[in-house]
Amino acid sequence: MEVTAQPSSAKRDFIRYAEFNVPYEALETAMQADIDSYGSEHHINWIEPLAYLGAKYGGNFSSYKKKDLASILEKLKNGENMDDLAKDMKYYPYYYQVYSAVLGGFLGEYQVTVQDPEAPSKTVTETKYGLQVYSPIAKTFPFQHYDDFGASRSYGYQRNHLGHDLMAATGTPVIAVESGTVEVMGWNQYGGWRIGIRSFDKKRYYYYAHLRQNRPYQVDLTEGKVVNAGDVIGYVGRTGYSTTENVNNINTSHLHFGLELIFDESQKECDNEIWIDLYAITKLLQKHQSETFRVPETKEFYSISSGQAASSKVTASQNSESSASGSS
Q1: CA 159 to CA 144: how far, in whole Å?
Q2: Share of residues in the chain with pLDDT > 90 (%)
Q3: What span, in angstroms and rounded, lies between the C-alpha atoms of 155 and 169?
Q4: Domain harbouring 142, CATH code
Q5: DSSP 3-state helix, strand, coil percentages of the chain (rounded to 5)?
């Protein structure tokens, strides 16, 4: 991650450039330290040690060493204060702000709806602490991915790929990673049928594209609707690369998953939007997948994990097929 000086004449002071290159191993270790210390005298905020390393490495995590993270975690476990540890790091506040924008909604207490073991046709609610965001692909549905951020794309014009492609079968349920408000639904010649969801703190804009032809969206989804993390929002497809709506011009069915950081509303749609590499984050999100089931009569999927099924007045007892049986 590079730090660029802002002109003194800027009317508003906000971050205009950022990258997120924290490797999966560091994310997983810091997250586990946060979860394990929750409720203890010295609870570790996982973003702090990651921002410390960001400042130490100048954002270049090719220099990452496990012992560096272990050392700072040990100091925090022993009660040392990050304000003191990072007091001589000029850019620590910058990295903390950027990493908080990326990860700020990821950990916390959350309620999960599960089947009642004593009454399988009913559900119960449990409170947990940990990842409260979900993988964008539903539980039991396979997908493949690799680090493709920045790869070349040529449809329309030459550009870099500013998202992460998850290869999955057409009809695979797409999951809302984080709770938020649906800002965009509809056709885009590049992304095909797509959905844009804004986090409640307005800092993250999640983009899900190339959805299924003819029936791209979960039936209850509308613009302006509030969705819960874990809800089914749509279905994987291969639409896009066409000025005509509802056309399959993508060779391989997949979900284009993107995350834009927004520090000021002027950044939402501009020439200098901040999109981040999601490869490591997608690996982390696989630790928390939304369990779904399919209603045969409507061929719609609903999330059991988020409580979407209950709010939609459908129950798991209506499901006569395993959610792993394939696409609708």
Answers
A1: 23
A2: 75
A3: 23
A4: 2.70.70.10
A5: 25, 25, 50
CA angle 122, 178, 98 (to 5 degrees): 155
Encode pLDDT of 168-194 as tens digits. 999 999 999 999 999 999 999 999 999
> Is there a single domain that holds both residue 141 and residue 73?
no
Q: Which two tokens stand for residue 168?
A: 């999955």
Report the chain's mean pLDDT, rounded to a whole number.
Answer: 90
In a domain, 146, yes or no: yes
Coil, strand, or helix at residue 129? Answer: strand
Judge contact between 246 and 259, C-beta under 8 A: no
Going by C-beta distance under 8 Å and a sequence separation of 6 or more, which residues neighbour residue 255? Answer: 136, 137, 143, 165, 166, 168, 172, 174, 208, 209, 210, 211, 236
**Residues 196-214 pLDDT 10s:** 999 999 999 999 999 999 9
192 plus 304 within the same structural domain: yes
3-class SS at 22?
A: coil
In terms of domains, do 170 and 280 share one? yes
In a domain, 249, yes or no: yes
The CA distance from 78 to 157, in Å, is 54
Separation of alpha carbons 203 and 146, rounded Å = 26
257 close to 281: Cβ distance less than 8 angstroms? no
Task: Name the residue among 148, 280, 290, 284 with its Cα closest to residue 232.
Answer: 290
Range of the domain at 48: 24-104
Q: How many domains does the chain have?
A: 2
pLDDT single digits (tens) 228-271:
999 999 999 999 999 999 999 999 999 999 999 999 999 888 87
Least confident of 111-120, 260-269, 297-306: 111-120
